[in-house]
Write a structure and sequence with these properties.
By secondary structure, this protein is mainly alpha-helical. Helix content is about 60%, strand content about 5%. A four-stranded mixed sheet has the order 1-2-4-3, with helices on both faces. Strands 5-6 form a two-stranded antiparallel ribbon.
């Protein structure tokens, strides 16, 4: 049974919904600011009336109102900017605020190892960089969250209770739920909510501080100061009310979508429903003790708060409603996945070796695939992708897996992939192909015989698996690594598709992480603004996918028409279609809107899939293009 029909929203629709949710919370935020201004103005008028009595005439004083509006706006702006700057590091900062501790990639703890395996499999299956994984060691409730501005700076964190209380299937369901938030654009929206809402909560904090630390003044002045502080705190809770209202309005429906996506990813509704049922019967439920849990409550898998107000402005639907929706939507899958207690015990004993036995074949040569089917897979992970990722990882020698868990091994792994893909021979240190030190050279010599026999389907997943360890390099180490990769790629004075793909994946992720480039912003929303870049991109792809001149010309014209370029264009000459031009073209196209990116990727697939077959190099190239456009592509799986 295909599950894609259950979750009808594709990656690009998810991004559009996230933007509409942003517009909703901006409207509610402005309304909260306006009401807060009116409340502070009313509080000041009341204090003045008590102080001066009939000498203070009327309720409307324009100059006073505009002064109050200016000062309230400044306070809210400062409060929001402070939190936005504080969250500049993205998901890592959120995890730190909530008491998170990063899990060592080389951990020997079986529960932590199981969590890392599940996250790694889900990342490979969905085509996103493997995120950093954190644990909240002081939280015994069962909960988890994903946070970050982009997939490449995402963090997945789980509580100690989540790690110790859930089975592998249940943990996989929770992690799949969080990956849905990564893929659907929820993370940036959630971090923006944390920053903006902090501003409208500032007045309540100021009023509380004034009450707790009011100056001891005798007589009427002390009473007026206390009255004003009390009124200011009451008015400030307008911000608390609207903050909870905004989080509730933005988050609740996205949780239903993430639950459905979790089933789609795993084809196992009993996983996520098992976790939800276990939470319902667990004494601590999903509650957190950390004082920052309230401001981050909308990030979590389940409600992090308790009490009447938590229920009134719940950021999450009731547990029973979430369970009921899943059971009603997937009754046949729930029945198919029932297993005996013996099977469950065995699966727990072999968590680290769990591999789907569905006979998935390795991708080699080429695969027949309709372009429309391929574009639908962008950001749309299916259970078969997860099963495929599990088998890929299980097929790897333990020494290679271990190498992905430390910076030295990860660096050597990338060098080996580049060397083996081009079938280069000899010692790279002696040939001067990269300026590695002795330790890295020895690691290359150790890993290369293990990597050479692997099929091409393992190459990009290995780059994904090495990603977390590469982020642990120092700035100077990364600069040296980046230069060595560039030198190795240019050693034969040609840039292959695989070399371009690896270089694109690494620099697109790591350059931003290490601060070498600024995060990209949307600058182009109209095709005319990037028409020349689209022309160059389609020309390059058509040349790569079609060696026959006539076939290339026909595929190019079909792609141009699909994209909607009005004027007649001729395909770019073959000698001009190189990887250097492709790199410059993608730099500009990366700043297009998601609506435009979908059209561009659809046209790209027409170019490389004109013969209804996509080869491994073509698939890798499309992955590099999609990565540059911030669109995750899961692995291609043979029919």
């Amino acid at each position: 049974m295909a599950l894609s029909g259950r979750v009808t929203m594709d990656f690009f629709q998810g991004q559009a919904v996230a933007r509409r949710k942003t517009a909703l919370f901006v409207f509610l935020f402005l309304l909260a600011v306006l009401l807060t201004i009116c409340g502070v103005y009313a509080a000041i008028v009341i204090v003045f009336f008590v102080q001066y009595g009939n000498e203070f005439h009327g309720w409307w004083h324009p100059s006073l109102f505009f002064n109050v509006a200016a000062w309230v706006a400044i306070v809210i702006l400062i409060g929001s900017l402070y939190k936005i700057i504080d969250l500049w590091k993205g998901g890592v900062r959120v995890a730190e605020l909530l008491g998170g501790v990063p899990i060592n990639q080389s951990t020997s703890d079986p529960d932590e190892r199981r969590l890392l395996n599940v996250v790694q499999e889900m990342a490979i299956a969905s085509g996103v960089p493997v995120p950093h994984v954190y644990i909240l060691p002081k939280e015994s409730g069962i909960n988890a969250f994903a946070a970050g501005y982009e997939p490449h700076d995402a963090v997945v964190a789980v509580t100690k209770g989540c790690l110790s209380e859930l089975s592998r299937d249940e943990l996989q369901g929770v992690i799949a739920h969080e990956f849905s938030h990564i893929l659907n654009g929820d993370m940036r929206l959630n971090l923006n909510l944390m920053g903006v809402i902090n501003g409208i909560l500032c007045l309540a904090v100021i009023g509380r501080v004034m009450l707790d630390n009011r100056v001891r003044v005798r007589g009427r002045g002390a009473a007026l100061l206390t009255m004003f502080a009390f009124l200011l705190m009451i008015v400030g809770y307008i911000g608390v009310f609207f903050g909870n209202l905004i989080k509730s309005a933005v988050s609740r429906q996205r949780e239903f979508l993430a639950d459905a996506a979790a089933v789609q990813f795993t084809r196992n509704p009993s996983g996520i429903t098992g976790a939800l049922k276990k939470i319902a019967g667990f004494p601590r439920g999903t509650r957190l003790l950390n004082p920052h849990a309230e401001e981050a409550s909308h990030l979590f898998f389940g409600s992090a708060l308790s009490g009447y107000l938590a229920g009134l402005f719940a950021t999450h639907p009731p547990l029973l409603e979430r369970i009921k929706r899943i059971d009603m939507a997937y009754p046949e899958l729930a029945a198919a996945r029932k297993r005996s207690e013996r099977e469950i015990t065995e699966s727990r004993a072999f968590d680290d070796a769990l591999v789907s036995d569905t006979g998935i074949q390795a991708l080699s040569g080429s695969v027949r695939l309709e372009p429309k089917q391929f574009i639908a897979s962008v950001g749309n992970t299916q259970a078969v992708h997860v099963e495929y990722a599990q088998k890929l990882v299980a097929d790897l020698p333990p020494a290679i897996i271990e190498a992905t868990r430390n910076p030295l091994g990860a660096e050597a792994l990338v060098y080996c992939l580049l060397l083996c893909a081009e079938e280069q021979t000899g010692d790279p240190m002696q040939e001067g192909k990269c300026g590695t030190d002795q330790a890295t050279g020895q690691e290359i010599a150790r890993l290369r015989p293990l990597i050479s026999p692997l099929g091409p389907e393992h190459r990009l997943p290995l780059v994904d698996m090495a990603w977390p360890a590469l982020k642990n390099m120092s700035h100077s180490q990364y600069r040296e690594f980046r230069a060595d990769v560039q030198q190795l790629i240019e050693a034969d004075r040609t840039v292959s598709l695989f070399e371009f793909t690896v270089h694109s994946l690494l620099t697109n992720r790591l350059d931003t992480f290490f601060g070498l480039v600024k995060p990209r912003k949307v600058r182009y929303r109209i095709l005319d603004q990037v028409q020349m870049e689209c022309f160059e991109l389609l020309s390059i792809l058509t040349r790569q996918g079609n060696k026959n001149e006539q076939a290339a010309g026909e595929a190019f014209q079909k792609a141009v028409q699909t994209l909607g370029i009005g004027r007649s264009l001729s395909i770019l000459a073959a000698e001009k279609c190189n990887m250097q031009l492709l790199g410059r073209t993608l730099t500009r196209l990366a700043e297009t809107s998601f609506d435009l990116k979908k059209r561009i990727l659809s046209a790209c697939l027409l170019c490389i899939g004109a013969d209804n077959r996509i080869t491994v190099p073509e698939a890798e190239l499309f992955r590099a293009i999609a990565e540059n456009l911030d669109c995750p592509v899961p692995p291609i799986i043979p029919a």
